[in-house]
Each structure stands twice: as C-alpha cells, then as structure tokens.
Amino acid sequence: MKKCIILGSTGSIGTSSLDVIKSNSGHFRAVGLSAGSSVGKMCEQVLEFKPEAVSMSDSGAAYELRERVGHHTMVYEGIEGMIEMIRSLDADAVINGLVGSVGVLPTLTALEYDKDVLLANKETMVMAGRLVIEAAARFKKRIVPIDSEMSAIYQCLKGESSKTLKRLILTASGGPFVDYSAEKLKFVTVKQALNHPTWSMGVKNTIDSATMMNKGLEVIEARWLFNVPGTEIDVTIHRDSIAHSLVEFIDGSLIAQLSKPDMRLAIQYAMTDPERLQSPYGGIDFSSPFSLTFEPPDFDRFPCLALAYEALERGGTAPAALNGANERAVEAFVNGNITFMDIPETIRRVIENHRFIEEPNIDDLITTDLEAKRFTSVLVES
C-alpha cells in the first residue's frame, strides 16, 4: 500500500489523482490532502477517503473545516500548515498538483523529509530546477513527472543511455488560437482563451496553453528533469494531443508515447513506476482511422514561447522572474485588466528590469518571484 499526500486535492490534478486512488484502493491510500478555500469539496473528500490530515491555505476555510470534520481529521492552515503536514505524515510520496510558485517549498520539504515527489507543478522546476535536482540527489529521493509531456519523455527514456540522446520534442496542442492571425490575437476574450480544444485544466494552465507559455515553462522544466540543455529541446504543434512527446536519438530513431489525452494515465504511471497497473484511461482504438500531424510553432504570434527560451538561456533568476510575471499577468488578463497580447509584453518588461542574480539560493528565488509579481502589478495599473 503506497501512502500519498495530495497537494491541490480539489483541483484538476488532485481530483484525477483521487480517481486513480479510488480505482486502485488496494494499492494506494491518501493520507493527506490540501486545498485553498473549497471547504465543501474538501469535506466530501475527507468523508470518502478518510485522510489522517488536511491543510487549507485560507484560514477562514480551515476554521470552518475544523468545525465540520476536525474531530476526525487533523486540520492545518496556511503554507506553514501544509509544510508541517508534509513533515509530520508517514507517506511514501507527495503528489504536487499545486498551481504556481507556491509549489516550490512543499517540493523541497517533501524531498528533505524522505518522500518521493510526483510532480505536476512545473513552476517548481522553472523557478528552482537546479536546487530541486540537487535536493533529490542529496536526500536520495525520486522526482517522477505527472504532466503528460514530461511523463511521455520519462517513459521514452527508460532503459536508454543519455549518450545516445539527440533531442527532446515536446508536443503542444496549439491551444484555441493556433490558427489566429497576429491581428486577431489582439482581440481575444477570456472566454475564448478558456475554451481549450482537447484538455480540461484549471484556469491558469488553460490560459498558459492559449499563450503557449505552458510549453515554454515545460521547456525549462524538461531542461532540469532530464539534464538536457535548452538547445536540444524543441516544440512541435500536434493538435490531436495523442502523441504526448517524443525523443530523438543520435541514430535518427524517434520514440513517442501515445495515449488518449487523460491526465489520469500519467498520474497512475507516476504512482506505480517502475511497474504498471491495468488502466481504463489511455487505450487508443485502432479499428477507426486517425492521423498524427505535426507542425512548427510560430514564435512571432506566440512570443511567450520565445521568452521562456530566452529566460532559460540567461539562467539565474531570469526563469523565476518569467514565472512570477506570468502568474500575475495571467491573473490580470482573467480579471479584464489587460489584453491577451499584453501578457507577453508585460512579462518581457519584468524580465528586462528585474534584479538579476546569476547563482541564486532559494531565498533569492522567492524574493525574485515576489518582486516580479509586484512590478507586474505596477505595470498593469499603469
């Protein structure tokens, strides 16, 4: 029985993870859950999965939850409470389904306190990839990716020598605006941006997919997870979302991982790795025709992708500034304060003007994130 803590249990990754646990109750148990302020959903999860502890980032939500379930379950609150829950619980793995920079410290805490990390929070690796990889090595714990693209590469590299690797190829659906002209992109609405053609995700990740920042963040994530320089990581548009990423080797061979676009398959694989369990999630019906098409991304129409490559090349605090600015810019767009194409321009200005540190520690990175968000807010207001 593998015991898991699920961070962000009421979100897309969290609920999918609980689906996997429910379908494989003889193999997995959720001993800890965390959420933001969704008291109703958390109560339902507590009643069904009976975790030993839960954490709510909102103090008011934590108080209400204690009133409803506190006599059965320990309730922590705030980021400090989440960290303490990770430290205290006896668990094999932490599933990090948080969104944004808030996921960094829980990842580092899990590694330090003898827990593997099943990672969907790509911002962890964007902000602090070097530090996280060093921590995993120091504490002899594993980081297993949950994002479909990272999971695909992880699976394709199994049993292969790094000496034979030529490049990683991340697939992107292209989002809802892949065929929009540069002029038309100036006028897209929040409702249009949230209408993803193939995946069901949370608001922030869906907007990131529309701007293609999601793929840029994954380029940075892949650089650290697989120890591959950015010059050897490419992106291709694959609208069908069936091939979840590819690996090319020096002899010209390509290996791809294919499945239906269902996050539960990647989550289950991460939970069972290096074994596999039977699953209803990923099979493809070959009795009906389908095609696999690939096309290059347009860096001019989707400048967020280029910004991510530039931040990765610069290194230091640049990716943390990119991530912080993007989080706040996406929030401003969703709230109607800036336009869709203001997002990359705002991010660019923040990166160019942030206080750059070449070899940052964790405190430097957290400070960079906060300063980037503050400067983004100033730009939005002006």
Describe this structure in words.
This protein has 382 residues and is of the alpha/beta class. The chain has a domain at 2-145: NAD(P)-binding Rossmann-like Domain (Rossmann fold, 3-Layer(aba) Sandwich). Helices cover 48% and strands 15% of the residues. The protein is built from 16 helices and eleven strands. The strands form two sheets. The protein has a seven-stranded parallel β-sheet, with helices on both faces. Strand 2, helix 2 and strand 3 form a beta-alpha-beta unit. Helix 5 packs parallel to helix 6, helix 11 runs parallel beside helix 13 and helix 13 (303-314) runs parallel beside helix 15. The longest helix is centred in the C-terminal third of the chain and has 20 residues, at 362-381. It is globular, with a radius of gyration of 20 Å. The termini are far apart.
Q: What secondary-structure arrangement, pairings included, does this model have?
A:
Elements: E1 2-7, H1 12-23, E2 28-35, H2 39-49, E3 53-56, H3 59-69, E4 74-77, H4 78-88, E5 93-96, H5 104-112, E6 116-119, H6 122-139, E7 143-145, H7 148-156, E8 165-172, H8 182-185, H9 190-193, H10 203-211, H11 213-225, E9 233-237, E10 243-249, E11 254-258, H12 263-272, H13 303-314, H14 318-334, H15 342-353, H16 362-381
Parallel strand pairs: 1-2, 1-5, 2-3, 3-4, 5-6, 6-7, 8-9
Antiparallel strand pairs: 8-10, 10-11
Helix pairs in contact: 1-12, 2-3, 4-5, 5-6, 6-11, 6-14, 11-13, 13-15, 14-15, 14-16, 15-16
